[in-house]
Amino acid sequence: MTSNELVGQSLPQKAARRIKRMMGPWGVFLEGFLRHPVMVGSIIPSSRFTIEKMLAPVKWDECRLFVEYGPGVGTFCRPVLDRLRRDAQLIVIDTNPLYIDYLKATITDGRFVPVLGSAADVEAIVRAHGHDHADYVLSGLPFSTLPEGVGPAIAAATHRVLRPGGAFLVYQFSKRARDFMARHFARIDAGFEALNVLPCHLFWGWKD
What pTM did the predictor assign? Predict the structure, then answer.
């Protein structure tokens, strides 16, 4: 950034940039939440306890394609990549270019594919990257606050894109996400994680 650009910025803008640099990925996450609060489920990334519990049922040796909606700054991305087979792929989908640009700059794993787009288009995105289906789909999107019709569209597309035996993994502060899932998934396992800000409900919808 040039000195002229700095001079042209207001003091609040300069302060915001300094705070963002000091906070690192948390600063990016917070900025994304402030820009698009309806599309971001939380102001704080998920805890390691939530991550461990959410990913526990995944059969990693059988997983060729893992998809995540709303990856934020990669809170789940790195744990997923740590567990994922060397010949598998992780596709993450987000409508926020701030998060996608950050992930492209910070995760260099060849199995990692960040996509700027809508989760409702998951079928087309999966096909565009050479896959017929996904084994698991993870979502922290706030179903209860998404624009009308978007939540049902995402749930339906997710069920279609999953292979038989695959699962839709959802973590939410509200139980309402289960209502969207129940229209398509006959079997839904449920859990709860108190050691998270805020405590959250966990759901695993299995495709028969």
Answer: 0.82
